[in-house]
Amino acid sequence: MNTHLHKAGLAVAASIPLFVLPARISEGQLNDPVNLIGSEIVIFLMSLTCWYSIHYIRRRVKSWKGIVLSVLCCCFWSNVFFFTFNPYFKDFPFRTSRSFSMRVMMLSSRGVLMSIVLIPAAVYLKRDYEARFQRRENERLALERIKVENELLEEAVAERTHALHQTLHSLEESQQSLKHQLYVQSRLVASITHDIGAPFNYLLMVSRNICELLQRQEYDTVETHSIELTKSLETMYGYVKNLLEFTKLPVEHKLSRLETIHLGQLVVQKSALFKGVINSQGNTLELELNAAAGIVSNPGLLGVVLHNLIDNANKHTRNGRIVIRSAMQHEQAHLSIENTGNQVPPAIVQWFNSKTGEPVLQRDIAPLAGIGLILVKEISTMLGIAVCMRSDERSTAVELAFQS
């Protein structure tokens, strides 16, 4: 506002002496150029003073009172400047000698004429300034509104982007979980197919022996084999029933199903399933179990591990010994399955003892190790069981170390 006030004041104040200049020249005042120039400067200063006075009054007095005071102010400054500078420069023509009061009235009339020019200019300037100020304010508010809308839009985009990332993350987790569930389920199916193979082969062999004994009419021996076949079928039926019930559970339930397990009892149950198969190989099974060895684990998956270890030990032993030991070492349960027989290839021992079970390595080792050892290693990793194998020309032993 101050910049516009000064510029407009200078323009208006300069226009008034220029406006009266032609009339003064026509009156012959050009004959005294010093007085003409000096009086023009006096009129300019008087107009400028009136201009600032009018604005001062307009800011403090509103409505018609401000207009009246502005007119009186112009009259006042007209008299002041005349009586102050008239001895030097004659800026108002008095052609006849007049009284002081008459001079004041005539000078006041000049002030009224000046106010007629200055007051409308001041009002126009103020309204113009207010209009421009309002436009700038509207523009500022519009920019602020746009800024706020942009910030809200950015927040909305950020929230939706975050929600989208969370959704994608959840989808990735669900996908990984589904892959893991399918992986566990496929391994269980492979385990069932693998685990029941050896016992059923033994049952088929016993049934064939019974047929041959019946053909030779060796009834006493048939009775012994029938009793053994019945016990094996009952044991096998119980194992298959429990295994099928376990596979019906959801994968999450299978993995999170933890129970307190008496390690010795679980070994005895699994050993009973292989009793006939072990005897058919001419092997003896020795159990050296610690009654205090107890663990918290998944009984179904741990049973798969023990089943495969006993089955592998029996497959690679002829007329030998299979020894299963359980012990407590530093409050940590350990289980070892040792068998006499052929030495395990070093590549399999190295793979089995490694902490990683990469799929590529498993595919390379599968033809040598077989599905049994692969299941043992993978399921042990799921259960957090540390496994270790050692093998030489005399025996092979696999040790399981359970988390305390």
CATH superfamily of the largest domain: Histidine kinase-like ATPase, C-terminal domain
Largest sheet: 5 strands, mixed
Would you report the number of β strands? 7
Sheet-strand content, in percent, reads 5-15%
Quaternary class: single chain
Poorly predicted spans: 357-361
Query: What is the CATH class designation of the largest domain?
Result: Alpha Beta
Whole-number mean pLDDT: 79
CATH topology name of the largest domain: Heat Shock Protein 90
Percentage of residues assigned to helices: over 70%
Lateral arrangement of strands in the main beta sheet: 2-4-5-7-6
| Alpha-carbon distance between the two ends | 84 Å
Keywords, separated by commas or semicolons:
single chain; 404 residues; Heat Shock Protein 90; 2 domains; five-stranded mixed beta sheet; two-stranded antiparallel ribbon; 12 helices; rod-shaped
Structural features, described:
With 404 residues, the chain is of the alpha+beta class. It has 2 domains: 2-147, no CATH class; 257-404, Heat Shock Protein 90 (2-Layer Sandwich). The chain is built from 12 helices and 7 strands. The protein has helices spanning 2-26, 33-60, 63-85, 100-195, 197-215, 219-248, 251-256, 263-273, 275-280, 299-315, 346-353, 359-383; strands at residues 259-262, 284-288, 294-297, 321-329, 332-340, 386-391, 395-401. A hairpin with a 3-residue loop joins strand 6 (386-391) and strand 7 (395-401). Helix 2 packs antiparallel against helix 3 (63-85) and helix 4 (100-195) packs parallel to helix 10 (299-315). Mean pLDDT is 79; it is low at 357-361. Residues 191-404 form the Histidine kinase domain. Its EC number is 2.7.13.3. InterPro entries: BphY/WalK/GraS-like, HATPase_C_sf, HATPase_dom, His_kinase_dom, HisK_dim/P_sf. The chain crosses the membrane at residues 36-54, 66-85, 105-125.
